[in-house]
């Protein structure tokens, strides 16, 4: 399940991504527009700044802006920063101990395929796509072609 932090991070980046490139957007404006607590957004922003997704400027005319064009951020990248892994079962997490049932598990192929499908989808949708409302269809170009990292490495 994707947490509130992951969902709100996407909403924050979409709101910032709708502004002209390079323009600083006050967090207060995003909080008001998205109806999210400014204090809660501050915690999200700290992680996104530390990850190099956003940069901030204090004072008059300050706020936050994307460090790259909105087209260059995949939903998968943002969710990986905010959530860690989206592995559907514990044994597929990177930090999971080796499962003794891996070689005989009848359901593992199902979970691997599910994970690959979600990773491919999330890595194929950009923040710009979300801002434009272009997410209801399958992405028109594969994630690798769009310059996004393929998350289907399990």
Set down the secondary structure blueprint:
Layout: H1 4-17, H2 27-34, H3 38-50, E1 54-57, E2 63-66, H4 75-83, H5 108-123, H6 127-132
Antiparallel strand pairs: 1-2
Helix pairs in contact: 1-2, 1-3, 1-4
Can you describe what's shown?
By secondary structure, this protein is mainly alpha-helical. Helix content is 43%, strand content 5%. It is built from six helices and two strands. β1 and β2 form a beta hairpin. A two-stranded antiparallel ribbon has the order 1-2. The protein has a domain at 4-66: Orthogonal Bundle (Arc Repressor Mutant, subunit A), CATH 1.10.10.10. The protein has helices at 4-17, 27-34, 38-50, 75-83, 108-123, 127-132, and strands spanning 54-57, 63-66. Mean pLDDT is 89; it is low at 150-154. The two termini are 19 Å apart. α1 (4-17) crosses α4.
Distance between the termini: 19 Å
Q: Which superfamily, in CATH terms, is the homologous superfamily of the domain at 4-66?
A: Winged helix-like DNA-binding domain superfamily/Winged helix DNA-binding domain
Biggest sheet, in brief?
2 strands, antiparallel
Q: What is the oligomeric state here? A: single chain
Structural class: mainly alpha
β-strand percent reads: 5-15%
**What is the succession of H and E elements?**
HHHEEHHH
